[in-house]
Amino acid sequence: MNPGTDRQVQLLCRSAELAEGGRAWVWDVLEYGRPARAFALRFAGVLRAYLNRCAHVPAEMDWQPGEFLDNDRRWIVCSIHGASYEPADGRCVGGPCRRGRLTALAVDEADGQVYWYPSRDIQPVAFDTPAAESLR
Ligand code: FES
Description:
The chain has one domain (3-124): Rieske Iron-sulfur Protein (3-layer Sandwich). Helices cover 0% and strands 37% of the residues. It has strands at 10-14, 25-31, 34-43, 46-51, 76-77, 84-85, 92-94, 104-110, 113-117, 122-124. Strands 1-9-8-4-3-2-10 form a seven-stranded antiparallel beta sheet, with no helix packed on it. The model has no long low-confidence stretch (mean pLDDT 92). Bound molecules: FE2/S2 (inorganic) cluster.
C-alpha cells in the first residue's frame, strides 16, 4: 500500500504512538453508514486493526480506553465476558466468541506515520459534512 497514491487513505497517528503490545489507537468510523469504533495496535512488530466489536455480543471490548490486551500482552480480551482473540488475525481463541473473529481493517505505516485504508463497508466519518438535521 502506498499512502501517496491512494486518495482514500486516512492518517491515523504517528508510528511511535503504537508501542509493541501497548495501548491501541482508537478512532471513529462508519460501518455501512452507522457509527462504530476501530482500533489499531502493534503486536509482534506488525500493525493490526479491527473494529472494536466483540464477536460474542456487538459491544466495545476495551477495559480502559485503548486497552485491549490481557496482562501478559498476549491476547486481545473482551472486557465484557472475557472472550479472547489472537491479535495477529482476530480469530477467537477462547471464551464465548466461539468461532467468531474480529473484523479486520487495512492499516500500514510509512515515514513514521500510521495509515488506514477504508473499505467500501467501513468508511471515515465525514466531520465536515453537516448533519442531516442541521440542513432543515
Ligand atoms: S461481549 Fe465480548 S465476550 Fe461477551
